Amino acid sequence: MSPLLSARGLELRFGRIAALDGVDLDIWPGEVVAIVGESGSGKTTLLRVLSGLAAPDAGSVIFDGQDVLGMNEAARRHLMRTQWGFVHQNPRDGLRMGVSAGGNIGERLMATGARHYGNIRAAAADWLRRVEIDPERLDALPRTFSGGMQQRLQIARTLVTHPRLVFMDEPTGGLDVSVQARLLDLIRALVAELGLSVLLVTHDIAAARLLAHRILVMRHGQVVEQGLTDRVLDDPQHPYTQLLVTSVLAA
Ligand SMILES: Nc1ncnc2c1ncn2[C@@H]1O[C@H](COP(=O)(O)OP(=O)(O)OP(=O)(O)O)[C@@H](O)[C@H]1O
């Protein structure tokens, strides 16, 4: 078996700041990898580079044998539609707010070739149910939904096409703690059920513990520690990881 996504030697500078400073990363099929680290450590930049949204100064990104950085925009968009999913922190960035809930889900199915209206509508209703939204709300606009519901709708829209790799950028950020817990449980169940590979960016250590098989700890654009989730969180080796873990425990 080879990694689904493999990055080597990623570097990206913004003036004097090294947002990525020699990052290597592999994600294996069915693996959930969390990238944790304080604000400004380079997490979002790494996600953007891995998904081809930003070009690094150096390094390579290979997805399933394809060179992501050498791809043209059309090929990258095709990957984004068919093999990848993106869950944004703000559901507004991942949903079309002027389109019904069912339309948001159905649209993505249509982008992968589905044409039969009845089947698309039935699949959309089924996915609303799977993300614990009443299918009666199929024709409602997302802006009539709570923040937690919008995020669950974004997840349904993303997962309906069964992507092989899902990028998640702080998927529970900005939500109430009780809403976060419910959403994390839902993400965990769906990821396991569908056998997804996930790259999760978060500064929520509890979310990383619940969802991730493996954790990478970033600081100043470098991966300072990585390993299986329980090992990294229960027996952190790097002083920075120790600080991260103890500051969470003390909070
Ligand atoms: N477009 C940009 N122009 C200039 N500097 C940038 C740009 N994008 C990121 N940076 C800088 O690169 C560094 C890494 O930023 P990045 O957003 O990747 O961190 P992060 O770990 O995701 O932080 P947060 O958790 O706050 O989102 C920071 O110092 C940031 O200021």
Following the backbone from N to C, one meets helices and strands in this order, namely EEEHEEHEHHHHEHEHEEHH
Give the strand order of the largest sheet, numbering strands 1, 2, ... along the chain: 6-7-8-3-9-10
Helix run count = 10
Describe the main β-sheet briefly. 6 strands, mixed
Specify the structural class: alpha/beta
User: Can you tell me the residue ranges where pLDDT is under 50 for at least 5 consecutive residues?
Assistant: none
Bound molecules: adenosine-5'-triphosphate
Rounded mean pLDDT is 93
Tell me how many strands there are.
10
**Cα-atom Rg, whole angstroms?**
18 Å
Q: Identify the CATH class of the domain at 5-83 and 163-250.
A: Alpha Beta
CATH topology of the domain at 5-83 and 163-250: Rossmann fold
CATH superfamily of the domain at 5-83 and 163-250: P-loop containing nucleotide triphosphate hydrolases
Using the 3D structure, state the CATH architecture of the domain at 5-83 and 163-250.
Answer: 3-Layer(aba) Sandwich
In percent, how helical is the residue content?
40-55%
Strand residues, percent: 15-25%
Outline, from the CA principal axes? globular
Domain ABC transporter: 5-245
InterPro entries: AAA+_ATPase, ABC_transporter-like_ATP-bd, ABC_transporter-like_CS, P-loop_NTPase, PhnK
Protein name: Phosphonate C-P lyase system protein PhnK
GO molecular function: ATP binding; ATP hydrolysis activity; lyase activity
